[in-house]
Amino acid sequence: MLRFKLKYLLNNKQNRLILMLTVSVSLLIILIGLFSYREYRNALDTELNTPNIELLQINLDVTNRAFRESDNKAVDLSFHPVILKYINSASAENAGIAAEPQDYLTTLATEPDIHAISVIKFKDHSVISSGYGYKSSWDEAPEHAWTSWIEEIKEKPLLIKRRVYTGTDPQLSHTELLSLARPIVQEGEVTGAVLIDLDYDMLFSKMYSHLSSYQLVYDLEGDLIYPKLNLPFPLAEMNEMLKDIDVSPFAHVKIEGKAYMANQTFSNVTGWRLISLVPMEQLLKNVTTARNMMIMLSLISIAVGCCAIYYYNFAAFRPLKRINKLLAPDTAAAGHGNLYDLEPVIGKLVGDFQSKSLVAEWSLPELRSKYVNDLITRSIGTQEIQTKWEHYFADWQEGPFELLLISVDRHAQWAAAFMEEDQMLLKYAMNNIVLEYFEPFWRAVTTAPQKDSLAVLLQARTPEERDLQAEAIRLVSLLEEVLKISVSIGIGSTSAGIAQVAHSYNESMLALSCRLYEGYGLVHTYTETENQYTEGVGPSDDAWRQQVLQALKSSDAETGLEWVRRGAADTRKKGIQPQKVFRSINDLLEEMMSIAAAGSHPLPAELADYTWLQVTTMDLTELEDMLCRIVVHMANVLGAHRQSKEYLQVQNLIAYMESHLQENIGLQDIAAHINMGVSSVSTLFKEETGTTVYDYLTNLRIDKACELLLDSGLKIADIALQVGYQNENSFIRAFRKIKSTTPGKFRESNKYASEYADRPKPRHSGVSEDSE
């Protein structure tokens, strides 16, 4: 089956063209990527190989030079008469003639990189050393670790061994040494050896290193000479690396799965092998990424080509194949059919379309409700308003429209009496009742812009004029009778077109806000209430709110209640616009909640789940009662807090700061005043006041400076000293940060109006503000 499908695909010219282009482009991309990678790697090898070989040769010359100097000394000693005299003497004469060779060895061992020079006699196993003198036996030498391999000198002209000092000198304990040995030959027989111990660290400290490469030194037996610590790789891996490069001067090797470029050279003096390893991972990272991206791009191009072939042969003809399959559902290869056979298929498609149309018709109320909600909240633009109006309201007229807003009275108390599911059920029932109530004479669409309200867009079905206010009054009674829900209704002015409905909605909200003064279960029209209330007579309208807060912070419940009642009475007397009253009460409640939150005080039940709707759905009498209950609760809570140890401590700190403003006090001094730690005082002060000690002290100083600027003729520098600033510029910067002006400009702008301006009050935060 697959073979026939492939044959069909390849017989199509378009398929062959797509396939040819896809394969050609992919191969070209892959070849470019591989060629670029190879050329870059070859160029990188050329650039790095030469400096690394030169570095190895430099290090080789350094080590050769150091060993050649020591080797020359060893060769000279092997022919020196004094040394030969000792070698040829009888065992009994060794002690007598050892002094002169020892002095000579001591003289030669003065160089800093030479630890000791020894002459070893094979005939009687005696030794003379510049470090410990003459010993008649090798085993008596304080340091004789060389005895295990010194005899190898009889077979080799030169020995170099890496070893650890094992003598008794504590200063040389565990010191790394490189021992160079030369034979003493007489008449073709090796009769002794000269041994020079070199300082390992001093020798290899002369080698030059490169930050991006590793330097390694191996001896003739393949043992690692350098480095001695912090080996870059496991020994097993390094041994495999030696086998890979063999005697080649340059090779690419892999150690622990990573690629390195290896260069090596051999010393003709010591026979050592010097190797440098340069990691290629970082050097080839970018070019490898580019190569992989090109390969990935070629794979993507192949995938795109395959998708194109698939789309051309399957997706483009899918409708026809689907129709054929529908015409012959039981046929394995539904590839034939005629137009006559399409009739039942088309009939089924038409039926499906009708079913979907019914679904769309059933969804129309929800679409209309969403449209009205977007319209009154101004969430859609003018063009979208008109487009959706034509689609969703084909059976409506262009205008006019009425809009009324139904709101549940005392929504917070009503919602608290029901579970959320029951609330939704009752609101659903109210929505149905409203639609059925208006259905005979009005076209109606409802939406819920807020939890407490139901907005109703209406259009009369007949031209005759209807009394909407009277019908709304009957609707209020009907909802009260059937659902036991008390509602108030606000009616906006008539809208000539659909675009003006949002304005009518705002008017209905203003009309509904008259519930504040007139009570519950009433219908309010905007035309009746448009000029009924005033905007207010000035800042004194909110003075009662500040007095209530001051009373709370002083825990004076009686004064707070008095100001609440006075504010409510003044509001009724002046007839202040309801929306302004709602905002004022909302601000007061939010400030109360802020005070409670700053001190972690419990909230009264009325504020436990506070929302804006709690205020806007109540009348003034109930709002007054609610505020009285909240004031009593908050005053009692704050009064209890004022007796707490933490509050008294913070007040003690504030009093200390106020009495020492002129001094250069800091957090350490303030904490010491109450014998507490700086961290504890900072935490306590922040919890009680909501601000830091530093900010509070700075505000006290600036407020005191404002008083002095207005009440005295002192210079700025003198005022700065009186409020604790030793530097006038520091004072000016702090003043500008808080007051947004300089002290001089502050004095200038207030000198003509000082008797009218309010005096600056100390900036306190949270419950710690005291109005005593």
UniProtKB/TrEMBL annotation:
It holds the Pfam family GGDEF_2. The keyword Hydrolase does not apply. The chain crosses the membrane at residues 17-37, 293-312. PROSITE patterns: HTH_ARAC_FAMILY_1, HTH_ARAC_FAMILY_2. Coiled coil: none annotated. SUPFAM superfamilies: Homeodomain-like (SSF46689). InterPro entries: CdaR_GGDEF, Homeodomain-like_sf, HTH_AraC, HTH_AraC-typ_CS, Tscrpt_reg_AraC-type_HTH. Residues 651-749 form the HTH araC/xylS-type domain. Keywords: DNA-binding, Membrane, Transcription, Transcription regulation, Transmembrane, Transmembrane helix. Residues 745-760 have a biased composition (Basic and acidic residues). The keyword DNA-binding applies. Residues 744-772 are annotated as: Disordered. This is AraC family transcriptional regulator. It comes from Paenibacillus helianthi.
